[in-house]
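Reminder: ligand-aware prediction takes two inputs, not one.
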Amino acid sequence: MKILVAASEAVPFCKTGGLADVVGALTQRLGELGHDVCLFLPKYRAIRAAPLEGGMTRWIKVPFAGGAADVGLRFLHRHGVSVYFVDYPLFFDREGLYGNAGKDHEDNDRRFALFSRAVLEGAKAVGFKPDVIHTHDWQTGLVAAHLKRHYKNDSHFTGTRCVFTIHNMAYQGNFPRAALEAGGFGPEDWSSEGLEYYGQVSYLKGGIVHADKLTTVSAAYAREIQESPDRGFGLEGLLRRRSKDLRGILNGIDLKVWDPSSDASLPRRYSSQSAVAGKAACKEALQRECGLEVRSDRPLIGVVSRLDHQKGLDIALAALEARLKRCQLVVLGAGDPSLTEMFVALERRHAGSVHFHRSFDETFAHRVYAASDLFLMPSRFEPCGLGQMIAMRYGAVPLVSKTGGLSDTVFEEPRAGRPANGFLCKPSDGEDLAKALDRALAAARAPGWDERVRAGMSGDFSWDRSAGLYLDLFREVAPK
Ligand code: ADP
Ligand code: GLC
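Here is what comes back for the chain with alpha-D-glucopyranose:
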């Protein structure tokens, strides 16, 4: 099949969260399976791709804001995927993918409206006639809208279908009404059946309304976003109306990127057979690196997270602090200033037991997963969550709240032939979290712990099954 993927981030080029892991790994997997895959990304300042420098640029004209923008397309071929970077320095050559210093870029409406249109013009310019366009989250929500509104009679896209994947309903890409015209849409799109969302323009809604099929990143989240206003953010009714077109497909992780037996960032590599000794060495090294007391008997709790309300880390604070005589905590995170302040203060109060690494640091993340005995992810909601899967792959036992993809991947009791691999608490419930933490800390010192570690390490987190489910959907939707 000819599959065009459009997204706002993808590893190894640029990343702020799990979206990048998913887009990077899934496109590569589809390419390896022999499909003709091309990926469109914005050419941010932070794009990490040496061959781009000095690479060929093709110039295209993209209809935009009543005129036309001259946009560059830079090309790279990597692991079976043709990658096109949409180069428009005025919009993308700056610090931060979506914002800088805690503030969203003010022109995100224009940036991603232009990007979405450039994807379609780019496909025409390079002669890629897709069977399916796979778009992700609000940043590319307008691609489906453009396809249906402006390209429906364009022979280049005859037979092209669009699949829109929702990674997080909490980000809707809402902008003032003026964004409608700037993005190339008109009054006929300003309705509850169109792009209007509570008096604003919603790019996420554009994807939900106009794509032929919808997916989200776990079966549990697919149910939750149709059932509750908390999860559906007012779009739950629309999602229910599109229920037969909406599917939950669980994410995988890239088993080559996340592999403790070959991970160059670790002081000691290990497999599930050598996990006990390997993890002990990684833990000791991290304790030294972070200035923690070097103690093998203290369970080390790891957190690798965006610091965001979603992740529920504030709910865990009291339970953690009351138990720091029995365990240690390493937090890697960046984001919300008040959560940052919370961990700065916690580290100050508990020097030697708590280390807060305040940054987005991919190499350090690998060392935290490897060194941790427990991995904490007490999310208020979680569409899928990759952190808990990566943690299990590295033999860190997850303690997570029972919501979304976390409840589809972590089991405290054996379930449907799958062994217990972690600990669960109710979401948004500090007391229940404290109890789960007590169970986990007691288990970490008891016989049987190694089985739980191995149960996680032998779990199947590959893309094999889920890539197949996406392909089934693509085949279903694309005309024969
Ligand atoms: P989300 O996409 O909501 O942030 P996921 O669990 O799906 O949550 O994915 C998070 C991804 O981002 C994982 O690959 C995780 O290792 C990575 N990550 C999160 N925070 C950091 C950080 N501060 N530094 C490095 N990597 C991080
Ligand atoms: C979003 C979600 C996260 C999910 C990721 C990749 O960032 O918050 O739960 O794992 O997308 O799909």
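The chain has two domains: 2-252+464-477, 275-459. Residues 17-19, 22, 167-168, 217, 251, 382-386, 405 surround alpha-D-glucopyranose (ligand 2) (CB under 6 Å). We will return to this case in the review session.
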